[in-house]
Design brief:
Rossmann fold, alpha/beta, binds S-adenosylmethionine, single chain, about 525 residues
Length: about 525
């Protein structure tokens, strides 16, 4: 079978963030793409767990989503908590509308947008739990392309649906062409065979259709059709009503939904309704007590989940007198997504966090969360203060009442650390900050060691210990490191330089142990074009 793919200029390349919030093209093995950035703890808010276990809590991360997702998938302390364990990813990336909003620009070159999304979706795939799902909020700007990209990343078979969200409550009479009423939310499962949505609560209008004319002890019920169009081998037979009337069979070209034997069983159990005079075509009694809730549908009107202006009103109520964040989503929209895709205690991730709506709603709904936002200004002005208010029970708006939220819990605020590398004239050097314990932590992250503080060792990976030397590795260093190894252990020694004999001696004293030089041996490519 042929495979449809989307191609674009630069698809085989990668991007790095630039200081102005834009992107620059680089080869995929550029050290700034392959390196794993550290997540540096800034502070915590409310109740958080033991600091030696930094991942037991919710995380607000300031920095680029690529670096944050890369760290969550690769640094062992985070990967053990998040890789393959995130139940829901909701993202509302810049739509590429070509506009410059107050708090961020939304005008990337088309191929830059696709590459930016592809590289983050690949990391998101690694983070999703086997029964997880990813929801991507879009408008028309990229709606024709993003599903093809997501087919490539998640597999076409894992496409679930496109939700249409009615985002405005009145037409824009100033529209040049048509006034657009809706956004899209694309839903993909990690595995559509496994993922199942939670039913929505039923509405009073839906329940009003249920009655109990025969005073059944099982409570109110609604008649359901016993005739179907779908061909069914056992579905054609005559039926005699309790009044004695013989119905020769289902209407021509149609079928009873159940076999004759099953109809008899249902009737004996009082589950068949023959009408007030016991003379009608049979109907199945569907009891309200037995229906599971409302199956989620794809059309989400603003009357049910809010509109753009309700999102803005929520932010304005929290930050009185300030220019509101440009594009906040209404809390009820996120409440519905989170309800359908998670259970209490599950992990929800949003790596284009904006004003923090996803995290705020996840917190109020008793889910764990990770949210990432690139702009430090947005984090300081909106995201962090908003989440502080949620923790302190000082946010009475949004879904607070519906979720009976009154405050509690907490979160850690971390930020993506600087690059380990400085680049001058195309050559790669270690950054000036990379000394002492900072260097050790950074090297451990690059090589996938869990950090430990047991000098001379700075990391462990199974029976392997990592020793990072902020200087030259010579014979004396090798002997000192090997002397501290336990039975059956080996070591990876990383130094900024090494004498020619040190590697040979290490191999002799501890076969299987290795000597590496930083940055040279950490790089796929030592020269940057
Ligand atoms: C449409 S807004 C999200 C709004 C959010 N759903 C809310 O309710 O407030 C997109 C956000 O993504 C942020 N962003 C853009 N590029 C990013 C990146 N590479 N990493 C992390 N955040 C990014 C922007 O700064 C902006 O705040």
């Amino acid at each position: 079978m042929g495979c449809l793919t989307l191609s674009w200029v630069g698809k085989d390349r990668a991007l790095i963030g630039t200081p102005d919030g834009g992107y620059a093209w680089v080869p995929r093995d550029d050290p700034r793409v392959t390196e794993v950035r550290l997540l540096q703890e800034r502070s915590s808010v409310g109740e958080v767990g033991d600091t030696s276990a930094p991942t037991t809590d919710n995380q607000l991360i300031t920095g680029d989503s690529y670096d944050a997702l890369h760290a969550l998938t690769r640094i062992p302390e985070y990967a053990s908590e998040y890789r393959g364990r995130v139940k829901l990813v909701y993202i509302d990336p810049p739509f590429n509308t070509g506009q410059a909003f107050d708090h961020y620009d939304d005008a990337l070159e088309h191929s830059v947008w696709l590459t930016m999304m592809r590289d983050r979706l690949l990391l998101i795939r690694d983070l999703l739990a086997p029964d997880g799902s990813v929801w991507v909020h879009l408008d028309d700007a990229e709606m024709a392309y993003c599903p093809v990209l997501m087919d490539e990343v998640f597999g076409r078979a894992n496409f679930i649906a496109t939700v249409i969200w009615e985002k405005v409550y009145s037409p824009k009479n100033s529209a040049r062409h048509l006034s657009v009423d809706h956004d899209y939310v694309l839903v993909y499962a990690r595995d559509a065979e496994v993922w199942r949505p939670q039913p929505l609560p039923r509405t009073p209008e839906m329940d009003a259709a249920y009655r109990n004319p025969d005073e059944d002890v099982r409570g109110v019920w609604k008649p359901g059709d016993l005739v179907a169009n779908k061909s069914y081998r056992l579905g054609v037979y005559p039926v005699t009503t309790p009044s004695g009337r013989v119905i020769p069979g289902p209407p021509p070209g149609r079928y009873w939904r159940v076999s004759e034997g099953r109809l008899r069983e249902l009737d004996q159990d009082g589950r068949i309704w023959w009408g007030e005079r016991s003379d009608n075509i049979p109907a199945l009694k569907r009891f309200l007590s037995e229906v599971r809730g409302r199956v989620p549908q794809t059309l989400w009107p603003y009357a049910e989940v809010g509109h753009n202006q309700s999102g803005k009103n929520e932010i304005q109520a929290l930050f009185k007198g300030m220019i509101p964040f440009s594009t906040p989503k209404p809390e009820r929209l996120l409440q519905r997504v989170i309800h359908i895709a998670t259970n209490p205690g599950d992990i929800v991730l949003d790596c284009f966090g904006g004003s923090g709506t996803t995290a705020a709603v996840a917190h109020k709904m008793g889910r764990r969360w990770v949210t990432v936002e690139l702009s430090p200004e947005t984090v300081e002005t909106f995201t962090r203060p908003r989440l502080e208010k949620v923790v302190n029970g000082a946010d009475p708006g949004g879904v607070t009442e519906a979720t009976a939220w009154s405050g509690g819990g907490g979160f850690r605020h971390v930020e993506v650390g600087p690059s380990l590398y400085d680049i001058a004239d195309g050559h790669v050097f270690l950054a000036a900050w990379a000394t002492g314990s900072a260097l050790s932590r950074a090297i451990a992250a690059q090589l996938g060691f869990t950090t430990e503080c047991d000098p001379p060792f700075a990391g462990a990976r199974g029976r392997e210990r990592l020793a990072v030397i902020d200087g030259v590795v010579d014979d004396a260093v090798v002997r000192a490191v090997v002397a501290r190894l336990g039975d059956g252990e080996r070591t990876v020694v990383v130094g900024k330089a090494a004498t020619p004999e040190a590697g040979v001696l290490l191999e002799e004293l501890s076969p299987g142990s290795r000597l590496r030089k930083a940055p040279r041996d950490l790089l796929h490519r030592g020269v940057v074009r």
